Amino acid sequence: MRSGSTRQSLMQPFDSLEDVLIVPLVRHLYIVEVVFIIVALIIEHRLEVTCVVSALDLILFTTQRHYA
Predict the structure, then answer these.
(1) How many Å separate Cα 52 from the centre of its chain?
(2) How does 24-39 read in b/e, with b if 16+ C-beta sit within 10 Å?
(3) Using CA atoms, how far apart are residues 57 and 44, in angstroms rounded to an integer?
(4) Helices and strands: H and E segment counts in the chain
(5) Cβ(34)–Cβ(51) under 8 Å?
(6) Distance between alpha carbon 23 and the CA centroid of its chain, in Å?
(7) pTM here?
(8) Nearest C-alpha neighbor of 31 from the set 59, 50, 7
(9) Which keywords does this chain's UniProt record carry (predicted)?
(10) CA 33 to CA 12: how far, in whole Å?
(11) What are phi and psi of 14, to 5 degrees?
(12) What are the distances in angstroms from CA 24 to CA 18, 30, 38, 41?
């Protein structure tokens, strides 16, 4: 019986490369891209800071819910 439980624990799937590396990388790059776009909009159109902060809060909230 003991060898069966050991064998079953050895057959547990390992984390794939996508889960370990690619998903966190894409999440990080997405947030960096959003921040870059907002900064570009501030520079080009001189948007009010309150509008930008509200937009950034909304984007980060939806991103966290999407990847959670």
Answers:
(1) 20
(2) eeeeeeebeeeeeebe
(3) 21
(4) 4, 0
(5) no
(6) 7
(7) 0.38
(8) 59
(9) Membrane, Transmembrane, Transmembrane helix
(10) 36
(11) -85, 160
(12) 9, 10, 22, 26
